[in-house]
Amino acid sequence: MANFLLTFHGGSMPETKEAQDQVMAAWTDWFGTLGDALVDGGNPISQSKAISPDGSVMDATSAPSGYSIIKANDLDSAVALAKGCPVLAGGAAVVVSETFPGHVASSWVGRLCAAPSTPGTQRAPEVGAAPR
């Protein structure tokens, strides 16, 4: 099984206490439906900044409004699970993205950190290494 990042874009917040209670009940029901497929229920996102390759920082214009992480056998199965997400009822779109398996990501990060530094760049510190 792979992990899938669900990023939520747009949507609206419930305005009344009754509507908030209904939304919370919908999330609780959906999490219950997911069962063991739920990896991380996630959180809403309130503020975002974007960093350009040149290091300049700006307000993010297409930031997600929240996220969750689920696991499924394949992308189509993850999409089927994501179709029950309560944000859809609030007008949000859900983007379903497969993440690298942990052993692949760890291997990639390990190779990146072990790569020799080139002039003008710094190597990422090793885990547990004292600050330079």
Low-confidence stretches: 125-132
Radius of gyration: 19 Å
DSSP summary, beta strand count: 6
CATH topology: Alpha-Beta Plaits
**CATH architectural arrangement:** 2-Layer Sandwich
In total, the number of domains comes to: 1
Keywords:
132 residues; alpha+beta; 4-stranded antiparallel sheet; 27% strand
Description:
This protein has helices at 17-34, 75-82, 102-114; strands spanning 2-10, 38-44, 49-51, 57-59, 66-72, 92-98. The chain is an alpha+beta fold. The strands form two sheets. The protein has a four-stranded antiparallel beta sheet. Strand 3 (49-51) and strand 4 form a beta hairpin. It is flat. Residues 125-132 have low confidence and may be disordered.
Topology:
Elements: E1 2-10, H1 17-34, E2 38-44, E3 49-51, E4 57-59, E5 66-72, H2 75-82, E6 92-98, H3 102-114
Antiparallel strand pairs: 1-5, 1-6, 2-5, 3-4
Structure, briefly:
The chain is an alpha+beta fold.
